[in-house]
Amino acid sequence: MANRRSSYENETDALIEDEAAPLYDGEYPPKRWSRQPKFSLAKLRPDLSKPWPPVVRLVLLLIVLVPLVNWIALAYVFSRSAAFFPPLLRTSKQVLLLAAHPDDECLFFSPAITSILQRADDATGHVLIMSSGNHYGLGAQRRIELKGSCKALGIAEQNCDVLNTTDIQDDPTYWWPEERLVELIKDHVARWNIDTIVTFDSGGVSGHINHRAVSAAAVALAKQEGAPNVYTSATVNVLRKYSALLDLPLTSLAFVPRFLTLSDSNNHALLVGTFSQYLAARKAFHSHKSQMVWDRYLYMLVSRYMYFNTLSLSQS
Q1: 0.70 exceeded by the pTM?
Q2: Per residue in 264-297, pLDDT tens?
Q3: Residues annotated as region Disordered (predicted)?
Q4: N or C: which terminal CB in the chain sees fewer CB atoms within 10 Å?
């Protein structure tokens, strides 16, 4: 009887111990209970410890080297070649940079004007801005800022003029009257004895309506008897505009036949600035304190117009 009771007690004690024991003695929580995601973002991250395929490395190397070599060649080695810098520009004496607003001269034309002044036989630079840029009431300040910009670009202060006429005011919705623009431009052409004008093309570089109006007036002037030569700077799409020197190889392809055939045609020019010219352009824009907002700093890094200009001669 004692043995049976003892056995019963032993079984009861064992049962109690089993009930008190944890239901699962492995890892907690059990794997079958955990909610594992079907995929992990970590798997999508590239493994940077692994070397890139040779083809990828070669492509990246070419993307960097080709524009760099192209820039060195055109800015330092072949900068005075007639294929890129035509005789009509090389022999210019009085060159007028014609723009719509203060800061246009350095944001869109600095490679062109500095290249002409440094590479031409004996050229003097002039700047004519058709309005003071008074759209936000800063016209008086912007007129003063232009003087510092001209100095940085190598243009004497007395050769820089900003107009402020009632019918030609900074307005992104108003097309300036062509006849009035031609009249004002002709006055300065006669005053400075201008033989070459550099300005916008029909796209206005940025599409601004005032830029395009200035271009239309300059082209109209070029058709008049005895007018100066008018070169317009090419407008490109947004992707090319903000690809800095990466756009130079594509742009220079059009000049390869001219270079190989030793052409000295005056119809087109590719003016690529040196590093010192780029720094001059940055210094010029820093004179425009009222326009120094964050996107301008980015513009000075990535815009092709800070590094080179392609010009086309407007046919008379």
Answers
A1: yes
A2: 899 999 999 999 999 999 999 999 999 988 899 9
A3: 1-21
A4: N
Q: Which SS3 state, helix, strand or coil, does residue 160 take?
A: strand
Query: Which residue has 């991250």 as its token pair?
Result: 45
Q: Rounded distance, CA 268 to CA 88, Å?
A: 10
Please give the Cα distance from 91 to 88 (Å, whole number).
6
Q: What is the CA radius of gyration of the chain?
A: 34
- Spatial neighbors of 130 by CB under 8 A, at least 6 apart, are 98, 99, 100, 101, 163, 168, 176, 181, 184, 210, 214
Taking the C-alpha atoms of residue 140 and residue 153, their distance in angstroms, rounded to an integer, is 21
3-state secondary structure 75-125: HHHCCCCCCCCCHHHHCCCEEEEEECCCCHHHHCCHHHHHHHHHHCCCCEE
CATH number attached to the domain at 58-314: 3.40.50
* 35/29 Cα distance (integer angstroms): 10
Dig out the tokens for 86 from the structure: 């035509």
Q: Which two tokens stand for residue 120?
A: 């031409």
Query: pLDDT tens-digit profile of 85-99?
Result: 999 999 999 999 999
